[in-house]
Amino acid sequence: MRVLGIDPGLTRCGVGIVDVRRDRTATLVHVGVVRSPVDASVAERLAIIAAGIRVVLEEHRPEVVAVERVFAQQNRSTVMGTAQAAGVALLLAAEAGLPTATHTPSEVKAAITGYGSADKLQVQTMVARVLRLEELPRPADAADALALALCHAWRGAPAEAAADAALTPAQRAWAEAEKRTRNRGALAR
Which residues bind Mg(2+) 2 (predicted)? Predict the structure, then answer.
């Protein structure tokens, strides 16, 4: 399964794609960060993030998208920007006909490190170990995106099944047609 993990943010939006086999072994496909300038308007920043995510979706053709679930923070402007970036990511996945899931930071940390309150370094270290990377993925937003993708691949099957079950027959047929079109495009390359 190819999973795109997105750690949403207005300044830095982490994106990470992994291929995960049935035996839970994983391979790094892509990792990066979409950055937007802090002095740009929110609309411009969201457009930059959307463009960056679109490129990743088109180039790497994930099968599912996992986005960090926004949680309440004390800094309202930070939470608003994170929520807006998450909304953009979910919208783009829906437009591409991809199933989506959200996972809380503690769910991701528990899946990757075994401890829901792990720090950034622990997450980076375990992501590097799982993906057999020589260096820790940096910045932390990139590592978090990879952790989201791994978490979803390891824990997300029920969420995908529930999402698929919620589709009407017409929506399911449309999603299957979109997937066939994407697969034909991938074969033509």
Answer: 68
Burial of 85 (0-12, 13-18, 19+ CB in 10 A): buried
Determine the Cα–Cα distance for residues 60 and 19; give it in Å rounded to an integer: 11
Active site positions, annotated:
7, 68, 141
**Under 8 Å between Cβ of 143 and 167:** no
164 annotated ligand-binding residue: no
> Per CATH, is 2-188 categorized as 3.30.420.10?
yes
Q: What does the domain layout of the chain look like in residue ranges?
A: 2-188
> What would the pLDDT profile of 90-148 be if each residue is shown by its tens digit?
999 999 999 999 999 999 999 999 988 899 999 999 999 999 999 999 999 999 999 99
Measure the CA–CA gap between 145 and 112, rounded to whole angstroms. 12
Q: Any known ligand binding at 141?
A: yes
Asked whether residue 7 is marked as a ligand-binding residue, the answer is: yes
**Reported pTM:** 0.80
